[in-house]
Amino acid sequence: MQGQNLTSGPIPKQLWSLAWPMMLSMFFHSLYNLVDAFWVAKISASAIAAVSISQIILFIMISLAMGISVGTSVLVGQSIGAKKIAVAERVLGQGFLLTIIAALPFTLVIFSFRNEFLIISGAVGDILPLATPYFTVIIAGSVLTFLMMMISISYNAQGDNFTMTKLFALSTMINMVLDPIFIFGYVGFPALGIAGAAYATLISQAVFIVLALRLLMKPTMMVPLHLKYLHLSWSSVKKVIDIGLPASLNQVLNPLGFSALMFFVSATFLEAGAAAFAIGFRIEFFTFIPAIGFGFAAMSMIGQNIGAGNHDRVRAVLNVSIWYGSGSALLFSLLVLIFAPYIVAIFTADPLVTEYALQYFRIVPLGYLFFAVAFIEASIFQGIGKSWPGFWITFARIGISIAISVITINVFGLEIWTVWIAIVVGSVIASLFGLLWLKRALTSAQREEQQTDQELAREEALP
């Protein structure tokens, strides 16, 4: 049977077996954007700006898809843990149908007002006519993005991330081959320009989806996808939305928070401050991949063990995942602190940008550990079926960072380094706040289950 029973066995080994394929998948997924940027940059600087602006909207789209996927994944995982495979199969089928239904109106609205959305996102002047063809193609096929996210999380819930890693690698290689062919018109194909990158992405995603669905529908899967379950049940939809809505909002908060801080830094410290912040953010994405991998791995394990009622094991998963996430964050913190001058030199030679960026890399890495803990906490809340606390942890982290930045600079007239300190302080407070909330939530969940078991026992004892 393809998949893992995560309710027994060595926790560190299982956590690692789930996390490292997820990390590789994220790395391959990030290559989609890097490959597109590499080839599109050969057209013009405006072309790469057009792709970057389009991807801001695409990230929000992925966040919406993530909500439905996370909600479905948690319910599937809990059903597996409770040994209710038939229930898990129904939830999986309904999740896929809900994904398609949600994608259609989103596609219609964004497609109809695509120019307006691009302008709001900053596509002005020469950038708009370049962004429009790329964005039009991507949005027309946005259902593929929704399905890709749903499929990936479905495998994760069943403890099978390695299959996703192989498919992401194949999809990325297809994208790498097709990009130059479609953009510049090699081997007999017409030159499509920037739109060619979008077509290459959609084709590579389509190959991923066809192969993944073919495997997911095999009876050898722990929870196979059955076409007969592609219908909606309001009770299941409500549960998916209850878990998925705050998960979506949680995902949307990150780009919104980054945009708000970027706007503030850019307005106060002009191009040099914005460039330094952008450099730091690009590097941070890769340093956070381990924490995100351990977070999703923990979510899968927590989901199955909550369903099985293994609360002691849930606490053990919490502790091990935080230790692993913290360890990886500390390692990357040290690497960034040591190699900061070399990292900055890759991106800029401007003296002021270099000064700001070096300050960033000497301060912000001190908070990597706390960011990792906060992300894992949010993932564990999702695993136990309570996504709102994860949203508030992220909201606190971002809100505190922005508030401290505005106060220290606008009120006290301090320099840009206070923004970098504010980012660290936000992560520290949010992670500690989340840890206290999480331990209380786990105790409450265990108490509720014990009360339910006692009530059932009393009912069975009645004559």
From TrEMBL:
GO biological process: monoatomic ion transport
Entry GO CC: plasma membrane
Transmembrane residue ranges: 15-35, 47-70, 91-113, 133-155, 167-187, 193-216, 256-279, 285-302, 322-347, 359-378, 390-411, 417-438
GO molecular-function terms, A-Z: antiporter activity; xenobiotic transmembrane transporter activity
Keyword Membrane attributed: yes
Membrane protein topology class: Multi-pass membrane protein
UniProt-listed Pfam families: MatE (PF01554)
Subcellular location: Cell inner membrane
InterPro entries tied to this protein: MATE_fam, MATE_MdtK, MdtK-like
Domain of life: Bacteria
Keywords, alphabetical: Antiport, Cell membrane, Ion transport, Membrane, Transmembrane, Transmembrane helix, Transport
Main location: membrane
Protein known as: Multidrug-efflux transporter
